[in-house]
Every structure is written in structure tokens, then in C-alpha cells.
């Protein structure tokens, strides 16, 4: 399938309005409605969406809910999507297989969960020392990103779409201070994707525990540290009750793209206007997710520090330098073993070189100046 031009808010609303327009006041005939022999609100198409998140979890789970709501409303009830949290139909880490098999027509998660199936998948979620949220959106929509992503998932009968971004993440929760590289050795930590492979090189035992099981694992000492998202989500999970030390920056995920998975066969059976509504709804929900994380993270961080006594700390220069070096080693290993991963990495890093000059010359210098004058 060739890359489809996504809808803007206005475009999506226009499609919905056209599809749902009522009778003309003068003629009683349909005013510009799309003619279709497809479903009606009385007899709708029903889809299931399975997610890697707990049901209704703030930001991520509600991002999936938003997609379903927009599809339901924009289609006028002709396509109804019901969302299922992790474990309700399939476990969190079986979402990809469920969409592939047609057990569910849609899924919602993050591509690095499928790194074991496809090494290149992780690049579509996050790369250590990679791209900001705005930069990532630029690569996906105006670079090679979405086309490469589609090509990777095509043999599985799945259409991927960017479904949101958390923005910059945090470096993780630790039950003890991390003051030197020696403090990493022997830790058992949850951290998915390429970042987890980097920590292995520093002597960390890395696990990919689903989000819904993380608090208990950290609280009872099954793991010593955990990375989830950032203050907004981490406060909701209550990690501050299990670990005291909260580290930044999120070197492993300078931003994290969420994904919507669509079963290709189910999608191609939809009338064209419903296909466009699905695409538009995903794009709309994606923008809302990043806006919500941006608005809520600092408030949540202040709550963690001021009300719960969390210690916000920063990785030392020594640690950051080692993480950068080990990241390059891991990336070289991944791309050396997998030809498609190499293609994706080369596209992404070429784009990063191109876009970095603008980001640093505009946003970075502005933020430095703003902070100086606001102090």
C-alpha cells in the first residue's frame, strides 16, 4: 500500500460532515453525501482495538480511547471501535500478533516491543540520543519514516501509523543512587528497546516487564530500577512509593512515538470514506497526546518532589559519555546483523544530521536565552 496522505483536523471534519450530511432544506435530497452500500449506524462495522496499556491508563491508554472515540463519532456510528486494555483479550506483548492474526482489527502500543521479531522496529519508537518529538514527526511525515515502517510491517499484513508521542522521557526510577558506572553493574532493570541493550553492556540485567506489572515488581524488589515514561504517567503508577531516586535525562528516549496497528485486510474492506476517517482519527489523537504530556509533565514532577519527597537527580557526565559510547556499539551491532535495520538507521541518522542544525540554532538557543532572562 502506498503512503496515504493523512487528514488535518479540518480535512477530517470535512470528510465526516460530508459522510453524515443531512437532507437539503430545499430538495430533501442528500447534500453532497458519499454514496456507499456499506454499513449504517443501525448495522455498523465493529472493530476491536487491543492495547499494550492498562485500561484507561492516563495519556497512553486514553490515547487509544481517543482514536476509537473519533472514529465512532466521525463515522456517525457506521464504524464502532471498542478498546481493550492489556490482558483483556491478549497480554500486552501479544498485541502485534493479535492484529496480524485478525483477532483484533487494531492495536495500540510502541514499536520497540516487537524488536525481538524485527530488529528495525525499535527505531520507529525511539533511538538513544535520537530525535525530539518534533524532529521525529518530521522524519515520519516528511522523510522516509512512514514508508519504511509500512514496508517493515507489510509481510505481517499490518499497516502502522504514528499514534502519538510522549515527548522527552525520564532516565528511570532507582532504589539506590546511581553515582558511577559501577552502580549499574548487577542491577535488574526494566527498560525496553535499544536502550535496554545499551544497559546490558554496562552489566545490567534487563527485563521487558509490561507496564501493568511494573509497580509490583519494583515495590517487592523483583527489579531494582524501572523506566516507564515521565512524571505524568509515572505519578499515576505510583512509582514514588517503591523507589526514591528519579533520574534524568531520558537518553534512551528523547521522544517516544506510539503506534496504531491496523489489520490490512480489515482496513481494505472498509469504504474509502471510512478508511480516511480511520487515518484522520489517528492523526488527531496523535497531536492531542503530545499536547497532554507537554502540559502535564511538569505539574506531576512538582507533585513528586514537593509532596512525595522524590529526589530528582541527573546522570553524571561520566555516565552520559559511557551511555553514548555503548549506544553507538549497540546500534552498530543491530545494523550489522539486519539489512533493513541498517536502511532505517541510515535514513534516520541522515535526517538527524540535517535537522539538528535548525533545532540547535533555533529552539536550543531560544530556550537558553529564555531561561537566563526568566531566572
Question: Care to describe what's here?
Answer:
- The protein is an alpha/beta fold and 375 residues long.
- It folds into two domains: 14-22 and 38-168 and 254-295, Bacterial extracellular solute-binding protein, family 7 (D-Maltodextrin-Binding Protein, domain 2, 3-Layer(aba) Sandwich); 172-253 and 308-351, 3-Layer(aba) Sandwich (D-Maltodextrin-Binding Protein, domain 2), CATH 3.40.190.10.
- 46% of the residues lie in helices and 14% in strands.
- The longest helix is centred in the C-terminal third of the chain and has 37 residues, at 272-308.
Quick take:
Helix content is 46%, strand content 14%. It has helices spanning 9-20, 61-74, 95-101, 133-142, 145-153, 193-200, 214-219, 231-237, 264-268, 272-308, 317-337, 339-374, and strands spanning 45-51, 79-84, 106-109, 158-165, 172-174, 188-190, 205-207, 225-226, 245-248, 257-263, 311-314.
Rg over alpha carbons: 22 Å
Please, what is the CATH homologous superfamily of the largest domain? Bacterial extracellular solute-binding protein, family 7
The secondary-structure class comes to alpha/beta
Regions with little confidence, pLDDT below 50 for 5+ residues: 1-35
What is the CATH topology of the largest domain?
A: D-Maltodextrin-Binding Protein, domain 2
The CATH class of the largest domain, by name, is Alpha Beta
- What is the overall shape? globular
First and last CA, distance: 52 Å
What is the spatial order of strands in the main beta sheet? 7-6-8-5-9-11
- Note the run of SSEs as H and E: HEHEHEHHEEEHEHEHEEHHEHH
Mean pLDDT: 91
- Helical proportion? 40-55%
Tally of distinct domains: 2
Amino acid at each position: 500500500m502506498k503512503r496515504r496522505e493523512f487528514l488535518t483536523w479540518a480535512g477530517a471534519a470535512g470528510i465526516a460532515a460530508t459522510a453524515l450530511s443531512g437532507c437539503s432544506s430545499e430538495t430533501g435530497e442528500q447534500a453532497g453525501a458519499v454514496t456507499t452500500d456499506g454499513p449504517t449506524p443501525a448495522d455498523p462495522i465493529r472493530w476491536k482495538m487491543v492495547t499494550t496499556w492498562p485500561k484507561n491508563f492516563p495519556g497512553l491508554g486514553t490515547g487509544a480511547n481517543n482514536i476509537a472515540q473519533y472514529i465512532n463519532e466521525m463515522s456517525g456510528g457506521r464504524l464502532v471501535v471498542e478498546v481493550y486494555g492489556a490482558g483483556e483479550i491478549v497480554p500486552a506483548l501479544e498485541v502485534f500478533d493479535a492484529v496480524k492474526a485478525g483477532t483484533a482489527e487494531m492495536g495500540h502500543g510502541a514499536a520497540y516491543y516487537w524488536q525481538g521479531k524485527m530488529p528495525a522496529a525499535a527505531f520507529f519508537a525511539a533511538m538513544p540520543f535520537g530525535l525530539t518529538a518534533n524532529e521525529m514527526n518530521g522524519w515520519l511525515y516528511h522523510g522516509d519514516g512512514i514508508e519504511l515502517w509500512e514496508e517493515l510491517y507489510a509481510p505481517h499484513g499490518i499497516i502502522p501509523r504514528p499514534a502519538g508521542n510522549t515527548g522527552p522521557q525520564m532516565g528511570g526510577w532507582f532504589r539506590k543512587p546511581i553515582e558511577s558506572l559501577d552502580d549499574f553493574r548487577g542491577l535488574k532493570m526494566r527498560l525496553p528497546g535499544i536502550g535496554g541493550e545499551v544497559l546490558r553492556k554496562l552489566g545490567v540485567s534487563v527485563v521487558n516487564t509490561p507496564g501493568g506489572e511494573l509497580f509490583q515488581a519494583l515495590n517487592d524488589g523483583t527489579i531494582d530500577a524501572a523506566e516507564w515514561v515521565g512524571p505524568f504517567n509515572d505519578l499515576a503508577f505510583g512509582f514514588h512509593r517503591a523507589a526514591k531516586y528519579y533520574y534524568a535525562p531520558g537518553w534512551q528516549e528523547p521522544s517516544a512515538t506510539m503506534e496504531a496497528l491496523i489489520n490490512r485486510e480489515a482496513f481494505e474492506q472498509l469504504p474509502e470514506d471510512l478508511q480516511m476517517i480511520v487515518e484522520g482519527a489517528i492523526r488527531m489523537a496523535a497531536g492531542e497526546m503530545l499536547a497532554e504530556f507537554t502540559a502535564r509533565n511538569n505539574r506531576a514532577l512538582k507533585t513528586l518532589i514537593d509532596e512525595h519527597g522524590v529526589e530528582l537527580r541527573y546522570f553524571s557526565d561520566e555516565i552520559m559519555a559511557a551511555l553514548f559510547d555503548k549506544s553507538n556499539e549497540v546500534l552498530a551491532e543491530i545494523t550489522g546483523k539486519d539489512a533493513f535495520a541498517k536502511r532505517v538507521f541510515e535514513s534516520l541518522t541522515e535526517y538527524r544530521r540535517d535537522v539538528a542544525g535548525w533545532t540547535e540554532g533555533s529552539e536550543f538557543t531560544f530556550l537558553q536565552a529564555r531561561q537566563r532572562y526568566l531566572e
